[in-house]
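Subgroup meeting minutes
Present: P.N., E.W., G.H.
Scribe: E.W.

1. P.N. recapped why we're keeping a running log of single-chain structure predictions: easier to compare across weeks, and new members can see raw inputs and outputs side by side.
2. G.H. added today's entry (205 aa).
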Amino acid sequence: FLFHSYYNNNDTIPFKSPQQEKLLRFKTMAFLAGLFQQKFPGTPVIPAFGNNDTDNGDYVFPTDVFLSAYLKDWNLLPSPTSKFKVDTSTIHKGGYYKAQLGNQVFLSLNTTLLSNNKSATHKGDTAMLNWLDKQLTVPNQNVWIISHVPPGNDFWLPQYTPRLTSIIKAHSSNVKMYLAAHTHFNDLRVIYKDSTTQYSFIRMI
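Output recorded in log:
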């Protein structure tokens, strides 16, 4: 959702200070969430963290203040009266969470934690994959997995791709869709055993 530029002492534009740059990040996220709510009133939106969606540096885990604002901006605060159920108890641990509407389950991952980018903060990376495995263990589910950075050794540290694919293989009957982005082009990746046995696919938007 957010822009790539960050303030540094050599910059004259676009920010006059790191405080101004941080404030603009908060305001931009709130503005974009507001546009979605204006265009699609009453429709739940299940966002996933991208590498720029932070008030810290690119690929660096956001602050608790930013995460709390994010939950509020995107209407991800639990409500006992809403049909849209969210469990965001893991947001502050790693930026991942669960949402559910009827029998449709959405597992939103923060795959910035798994990135091979040298700036990436690997906070709660193993915990997130263990959480995903546990969530998918529940039988007879209709699950969509959502992430920004897609799996693959060209984007993730090499130990994480086989772990993720093994989880999806183990629970492939529950995984109906995997949506990712990050690459700036449309693509399709297949999780497979061999040329005749495919377990799932990743649609990159």
